[in-house]
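Batch manifest line 360
LIGAND: 4'-deoxy-4'-aminopyridoxal-5'-phosphate
JOB: complex structure
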Amino acid sequence: MSNRAYNFNAGPAALPLEVLQKAQEELVDYQGIGMSVMEISHRSKEYEQLNEETQELLSELLNIPSGYKTLFLQGGASTQFAMIPLNFLNAGKVSNYIITGSWGKKALKESKLIGETFVSAQPEKFSHVPDISQLQLQNDSAYLHITSNETIEGIQYQQFPDTGSIPLIADMSSDILCRPIDVSQFAMIYAGAQKNLGPSGVTLVVVREDLLEDIPDHIPTMLRYDTHIKANSLYNTPPVYSVYIVNLVLKWIKEKGGLEQIEKINREKTKLIYDVIDESQGFYIGTVDKKDRSIMNIPFRLKDEHLEKQFLKQSEEDGFVGLKGHRSVGGMRASTYNAVPFESCKALSQFMVEFQKRNG
Ligand code: PMP
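JOB STATUS: finished
ARTIFACT:
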């Protein structure tokens, strides 16, 4: 389809064209039932099947070991920032956070509202992941929280800290399913859907069951993980349409060959853009240490704001969408999530080369 934009939005973000077309095809008549998936009961056998199948697809793609539960919740990743300490930061314990950017700071803020909270590491400048090999965690630690990919700063963990018996919890909102991971390293992972999983409205949580044993009694029903586990994510009305699109996205990833293949394509896509930055002799300025560069969000700057404005204006005129950096950091950012086609990245890299020729 030639009128699809070169979509580099940070989230909500590009969805695979094939998924949108399938959803369009099924919109008024889901699997021959004469209604859309939005018009049926979440207690119907069709929705229960969709719910089950979506969990199974995730288990398969992420290779989730036994002993973990998959949940589809609401309230976005931001609600998880609070639910994690509410459920796991019991009296007499401390929570630990490694801060590598803006989203980690927001998660930290919620934990501080709830209990004793400790920053285990935070670099002065958000340009890299701190050295995690020497990490010291107290015995009374409830968990260590990390942000596997900082969406605004474009900083991504390549290896995850070994926390021994202390639960490791990761916000994977902007890099879930971009590469294979070893789920057994984590006690919990979570992600708002609106980057790699589907539309906004649903939040994925994968949690190890033994974490749920000590949830304090006073935590309200909807904010307790055990409520949603007992009800298989059907305690209240779930975001049915969002889960439906997630289901289609997971099938699309499977058809692409799974996460190994997806990672390979993501690396090829981002190399096109990082190469232009690295070969520009300082015209484009990368803001992240090479070792920690993200394959999902590529922030870059130009030498002055005037030139950046020009870059954004001209790229928009040429059909590129979403390249403005987050308002908190400025500059540019290309978000290259799974559904962003190789061709869009190729086109952007060519635009960048041309822009430099005209303005360098
Ligand atoms: N964590 C990260 C890493 C994010 O990128 C975002 C959203 N951009 C959030 C948390 C917040 O997600 P939500 O809007 O779903 O609450």
